[in-house]
């Protein structure tokens, strides 16, 4: 007799069991978060889908946070969580770091907002950014998206060409997204992007070389844009061999090699690129470097930056932006990088992150769960056979999310963890335990 004909005597499939566990977890979520539910119902009447940042959309409704302190957040229904979302890597300093607080208050009291002029603060921060990330020149923007927008404009202006080679799964901002092997419909200058279908390994290195050389032969290649580790793409590190191959092919063809370090600059004292021995023509930055405020920056070789963006150069491009040198960002960003996230602190945080990922993978051994990433950025993946080649199990990832919330851990539903500085060690231990208990509780659907 087949299982289809006798559901009572046959064991449940992993999918069926997961669907039941997920439905139960979702009903508990709804019952435990009535304020968030109500707030969502109000918000959809004002904001499309109830939010102003698509990433935060989630079903049946997102949690509505009330406040944060240190490395914890509290939602409107009164639950406390350890914050592992870490504002998608921008929240490195936590919610109320005393150094950032002092910088904000003293900027407000002594400097003021909206001066509408150049200031010493932007030059001071530029000097620190150049020294830390080995840049000859830098320009500030409001977001990482804008940093990439202007870096691409620089490459196009400098080379007189248009096309840009990018990689499957790459994310370079709100209008530069390349999941599923193609440019998202809202990509700026969509027709100019050529997407390499692989990322990170030897196969990707060979394909990158071929695509870069072919596009250059057609005569219109301006730049190669790549992340050293794909962040939004799932915390998948690119191998050194792959990144060097992409860089070499770009340089041999005269294309500008742009390394997107918006997420990865926090992974090593001088950024991931320096750690891997890369020498990009341009680098883009963002996230935590605004000290908690909106920030982006791009910089690199002075012959490119000066010829494209020095207003004294005839035919140079304008790079405008009302808030590019906003005093709060210039001072909070500087204080954070200068006093808090020093080179030593950076090394230590990433050591703790590597240790945590190692412990999590040890607990998950033999299950469908895998943890990826580098240092303080961790991705989690559920796969049918526990290998990356096998099918993704979004149902298990969702179940994990609902149940980690019940355990008091605020993580992204897509499975991304960005560690904050100073998360108590007890909380990291508690998380490893919670993951272990989750896997045991659902052993039937988690074991490979
Ligand atoms: N590049 C990368 C690698 C990113 O991860 C992000 C943001 N997640 C961006 C660019 C865009 O930065 P922002 O959200 O500040 O525009």
Rg (CA only) = 23 Å
Structural class given helices, strands, pairing? alpha/beta
Measured as a percent range, the helix fraction is: 40-55%
- The pLDDT mean sits at 96
Give me the secondary-structure topology.
Layout: H1 14-32, H2 34-43, E1 65-69, E2 72-75, E3 80-83, H3 98-111, H4 120-133, E4 137-141, H5 144-159, E5 163-167, E6 193-196, H6 202-217, E7 221-227, E8 229-230, E9 236-237, H7 240-252, E10 256-260, H8 272-275, E11 282-286, E12 296-300, H9 302-309, H10 327-340, H11 343-363, E13 369-374, E14 377-382, H12 394-406, E15 409-410, E16 416-418, H13 425-441, H14 443-446
Parallel strand pairs: 3-15, 5-6, 5-7, 7-10, 10-11
Antiparallel strand pairs: 1-2, 2-3, 4-12, 8-9, 11-12, 13-14, 14-16
Helix pairs in contact: 1-12, 3-10, 4-10, 5-9, 6-7, 11-13
The protein binds 4'-deoxy-4'-aminopyridoxal-5'-phosphate.
4'-deoxy-4'-aminopyridoxal-5'-phosphate is lined by residues 88, 143-145, 148, 171-174, 227, 231-232, 260, 262-263, 286, 296.
């Amino acid at each position: 007799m087949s299982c289809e004909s006798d559901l009572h005597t046959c064991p449940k499939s992993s999918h069926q069991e997961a669907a039941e566990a997920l439905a139960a977890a979702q009903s508990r979520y709804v019952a435990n978060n009535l304020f968030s539910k109500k707030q969502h119902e109000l918000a959809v009447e004002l904001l499309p889908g109830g939010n102003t940042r698509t990433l935060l959309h989630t079903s049946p409704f997102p949690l509505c946070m009330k406040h944060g302190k240190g490395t914890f957040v509290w939602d409107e229904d009164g639950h406390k969580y350890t914050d592992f979302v870490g504002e998608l890597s921008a929240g490195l300093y936590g919610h109320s770091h005393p150094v950032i607080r002092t910088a904000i208050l003293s900027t407000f009291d002594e400097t003021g907002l909206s001066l509408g002029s150049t200031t010493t603060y932007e030059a001071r921060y530029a000097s620190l950014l150049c020294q830390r990330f080995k840049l000859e020149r830098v320009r500030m923007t409001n977001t990482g998206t804008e940093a990439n927008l202007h870096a691409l404009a620089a490459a196009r202006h400098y080379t007189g060409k248009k096309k840009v080679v990018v990689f499957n799964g790459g994310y370079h901002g709100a209008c530069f997204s390349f999941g599923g092997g193609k440019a998202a419909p809202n990509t700026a200058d969509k027709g100019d992007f050529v997407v390499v279908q692989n990322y990170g390994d030897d196969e990707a290195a060979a394909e990158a070389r071929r695509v870069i050389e072919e596009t250059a032969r057609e005569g219109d290649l301006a730049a190669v844009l790549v992340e050293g580790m794909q962040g939004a793409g799932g915390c998948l590190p690119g191998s050194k061999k792959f990144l060097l191959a992409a860089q070499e092919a770009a340089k041999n063809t005269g294309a500008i090699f742009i390394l997107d370090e918006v997420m990865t600059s926090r992974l090593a004292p001088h950024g991931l690129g320096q750690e891997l021995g890369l020498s990009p023509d341009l680098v883009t930055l963002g996230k935590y470097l605004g000290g908690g405020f909106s920030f982006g920056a791009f910089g690199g070789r002075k012959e490119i930056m000066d010829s494209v963006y020095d207003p004294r150069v005839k035919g140079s491009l304008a790079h405008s932006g009302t808030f590019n040198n906003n005093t709060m960002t210039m001072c909070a960003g500087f204080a954070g990088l200068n006093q808090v996230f020093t080179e030593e602190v950076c090394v230590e945080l990433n050591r703790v992150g590597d240790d945590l990922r190692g412990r999590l993978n040890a607990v998950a051994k033999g299950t469908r769960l895998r943890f990826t990433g580098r240092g303080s950025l961790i991705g989690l993946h559920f796969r049918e056979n526990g290998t990356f080649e096998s099918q993704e199990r979004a149902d298990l990832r969702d179940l994990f999310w609902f149940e980690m919330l019940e355990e008091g851990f605020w993580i992204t539903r897509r499975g991304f963890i960005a560690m904050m500085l100073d998360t108590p060690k007890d909380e990291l231990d508690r998380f490893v335990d919670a993951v272990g208990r989750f896997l045991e509780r659902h052993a039937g659907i988690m074991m490979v």
